[in-house]
């Protein structure tokens, strides 16, 4: 098997329930969504690109969501009662966008701490999805992106997003 860049004892497995890869250590029986410490991320990215197939007609994307008081559910894992305005949410997201575009931080790393979506724990990764599975505004932008490309601010009923197409 090709080198996945993982520390000794770790392997990549696939979750059937989430339809996403995860990391498993056979000796300690530990499993986790995030790559273990000491992973060579460049080797892992290459391994994943060569060893995972996306379902036909589907793409994979990650996002960073900032909710506001008029979002369809103005609460999150981070904040019980979100009171910021849509304008404030857009300004926050634009700040995140400039950090991502400058190369200071990746969307996935920033999503872990700043996204109001529960996908934050998976670096914002939403897994594979097809047309008709996401909100229309989100889907149109996600499908128009090239792999690796990050969108501008996208508004949906959930809040405001930055989207990165992964596959």
Task: Describe what this molecule looks like in 3D.
The protein has 167 residues and is of the alpha+beta class. Helix content is 26%, strand content 23%. It has 4 helices and 7 strands. The chain has helices at residues 41-51, 86-101, 107-114, 136-144; strands at 10-15, 20-25, 30-32, 59-66, 125-129, 154-156, 159-165. The strands form 2 sheets. A 4-stranded antiparallel beta sheet has the order 5-4-7-6, sandwiched between helices. The chain has a 3-stranded antiparallel beta sheet with strand order 1-2-3, with no helix packed on it. A hairpin with a 4-residue loop joins strand 1 and strand 2 (20-25). The protein starts with 9 loop residues before the first strand and ends with a strand. 28% of the residues are buried. The model has no long low-confidence stretch (mean pLDDT 91).
What is the string of helix and strand elements? EEEHEHHEHEE
What class would the helix/strand composition place it in? alpha+beta
Helix content: 25-40%
Give the strand line-up of the largest sheet.
Answer: 5-4-7-6
Q: What's the rounded overall pLDDT mean?
A: 91
- Low-confidence stretches are none
Enumerate how many helices there are, as a single number: 4
Distance between the termini: 22 Å
Shape: globular
Strand content: 15-25%
Task: Compute the CA-based radius of gyration.
Answer: 17 Å
Largest sheet: 4 strands, antiparallel
Number of DSSP-assigned strands = 7
